[in-house]
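Schema walk-through. Below, the input block comes first and the output block second. Nothing else is stored per chain. Lengths vary across the set, and this one has 329 residues.
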Amino acid sequence: MLRDSFGRVATDLRVSLTDKCNLRCTYCMPPEGLDWLPSTQLLTADEIVRLVAIGVERLGITEVRYTGGEPLLRRELVEIVARTAALRPRPHISVTTNGIGLARLAKPLAEAGLDRVNVSLDTLDRDTFKRLAHRDRFDDVIAGLAAAQDAGLLPVKVNTVLMRGVNDHEAVPLLRFCLDQGYELRFIEQMPLDAQHGWSRADMVTADEILGLLTGSFDLTPDDLEERGSAPAERFLVDGGPARVGVIGSVTRPFCGACDRVRLTADGQVRNCLFANEESDLRAALRAGASDAELSERWIAAVAGKRAGHGIDDPSFLQPSRPMSAIGG
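--- output ---
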């Protein structure tokens, strides 16, 4: 198992397929984009599937989530999902996406074995979307959400980051929209993972503030805490249920003590935390001819060194040099 020195066991693997993205969301990267990784440094589809298979068959991984950048930009995504679904024991497979291209890919992905999607949507206003993402693709995201639901990728989850003075007034409309459409909304505190290093705690809309924005319009009841387990979202029944809303307070309500996640970057580095400044290279060993057993040993050693928490509140905290797009959510 992938056990760290604090007794936590990693069973949830987040795999970044690319650092490229077709949006330029202000909390992630600058309008002009970033210098993308050279294609030679990216793991091939065969390398990705081999490492995922090692995680599933040897190391106890039960959930695999493909992320980016934007994972739908990876040409082999459907193939990678199908090969992942063929592993035994079969892991639960999901994708986190901005939704662009999902209208076309939702059905093929479902047929390949994808179980679920998380789609980012920060606003219901087209002009605000353009200002946030520097692209006019609002309709594509809405169409992608509908296609995912039609394809049976349920529950369709929506990820929303509220920003002070930008879209924080949309908390209630966004929840109403998701309730009406049958989507499950997750509000996420803005995290210090932007390429520009412009994050400010003062500008972040906190979990407490998010709940305050919602409780004037909805009756929120804490969901069963035992069901949460290691899930990052605190879930609340909306108006008695069964609909739920989640709040992920990564900064002000950290859940590090129950974390069961480990990350593999698009260039084959193991990361134990979104905010880690340390990485362990599996790509070099893989390409040098390491056996599955040797790669497993390297992976086990990497996770053993996982820190107790992300340390954002520590005065010595340094924002990771890699932005979110290069780490993978």
